[in-house]
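Journal club prep, notes for RB
We'll compare a predicted complex against what the paper describes. Inputs for the manganese (II) ion case:
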Amino acid sequence: WIFASAMYFYYLNSADSSNSFADNSDNGGGGGFGPASIRRAKAESIGKKDRAKNIVITRQQAADSQASSASQEQQVMWTNFDWKAYVAGGAWHAGEDKYAKNKFNQQVSDSVSAIRDVPDTRESQCRSIQYDSTDLPDTSVVITFHNEARSTLVRTVLSVFRMSPYHLVREIILVDDFSTDEDTGKLLTQIAKVRLIRNNRREGLMRSRIRGANAATGHVLTFLDSHCECNKDWLQPLLSRIKSDRKAVVSPIIDVIGMDNFDYIGASANLKGGFAWNLVFKWDNLNSRELAARTRDPTAPIRTPMIAGGLFSIERQLFNELGQYDTKMDVWGAENLEFSLRVWQCHCVLEILPCSRVGHVFRRQHPYSFPGGSGVVFTRNTRRAAEVWLDEYKQFYFQASGGARYIQPGDVSERLELRRRLNCRSFKWYLENVYPDLKPPSAPLTKRGELRQGEKCLDRLTASVGSAPAMYPCHGSGGNQEWLFSDSGQITSSDLCLQAMSATPDARVLFSRCEINNAMQQFQFNPPNTLIRLKASPALCLDTKPIDGASLQNPRLHSCIAEGKFQQWSIKW
Ligand code: UD2
Ligand code: MN
């Protein structure tokens, strides 16, 4: 019956087939997910043994495989799968908007082969490492998707097989999160080792991944987004690190597949994942100590305070012991924050392995809807993480994120109980030992609002030390265009302060780390309509007049002119 569970695809039928999130926000088990977890709990105690691998197979999976409906004879090796016909069945048609369905260029994606060579982006030292793949644990690859383009999905699946020792891929579990076209997932189960679970309503990526994990049988779980391409020998570093330390949760370096042209570009290996007090994921440069360590050994794991979220491996049993995901998070966002804090605070380690590389199509917009609205859903998810893991530091999150205090997180008692049961460490410990770069904000932040000139607003863009904000059309939804104004005159965003580079006309105004006593970070303003003067030199004002040839309007200091349209700001608190 190993065949039955590994080679067939199946559905787990839920009685409720409504397409709605409304009923799973505040009650017991997260809507339709509750019963499954109860079945699972029973199942763990019944467990059967897989003779070959000595892995416990649960009643849950037995139930899943009974619901299977494709026969083994219909399956082919991945090498024989007719991916061209498959892609053609869902292809972009001339005349349609290329970006409409996926928010990446589907025409280009459809025209790129599902079997293509991408550049080997690893550092040379990685290429000489030999892994004994006969001696590594195997993995179930879990890929959840909602209305993914066929061309990107099949490229993801085939790249897993092409780039991995076949025996190390126990199975690929696709979780179709209620996509409109059922065949997108179903047809892929013709490929040997591919299994499918389909949700009867939108569950969001967290509950979908949990369903995939609960059906998995491999020793390790490897999660991927549905638009990835695995690079050469990506899997062995992940599995061998977990083999040497079961408490290591590991992520590849995420290379970039261009959303417009589908070019595969190597990403920097000198980054780790982090966040500012708004708790939004960002990439941080490694500090000098970490860079020195990388120079000594470019193949060594990079400890990361946070993971981007989509691509990682974890021992399956550890994933379950650590409490999987928060089932009351919806759709997208902040599960990676919650997971990262939990991994560190609950006695495990989170790493990026520079010798493992996987490409991912990064997009600027979500191609799918958020029942309830993306801002609300994201903030609620984030707040749930903050409520459980941030202790007294939660107040900094409330200060840095405008709406969070107004959005109810729902019941987090189960997650707090998990934290207690696992005897996890404090957020203070995490700050001191894992993320010392994240400093408590240096000044109390009191007011917030946009910095507006006519139809344009100052936008923080990427907000890193030394970068400049610029004027963009106002969007009115806070985020990148929301600024905090402290009593002492600091203007901050993303926990960085605007700082004049000198007290002279033409001086640039850039993001810097906030320092309480730095006079170059103190401005004077008098809303609603006001000049913004440098306190230390009040004849100098924040000015956005475009410099000759520059395409962006970056702020600078200039001699104050009472009526200057590039100096007059309207600030609404
Ligand atoms: C990043 C992560 C993503 C996730 C997210 C935070 C990477 C490369 N990607 O966003 O995995 O951690 O941050 O939540 O690190 N999906 C569903 N159901 C939904 C919505 C999405 O199945 O309701 C699938 C989607 O098809 C995709 C995956 O979840 O395969 C992640 O979604 P995304 O690609 O839109 O997220 P991304 O890459 O912007
Ligand atoms: Mn993605």
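Talking point for the session: Residues 1-69 have pLDDT under 50 and may be disordered.
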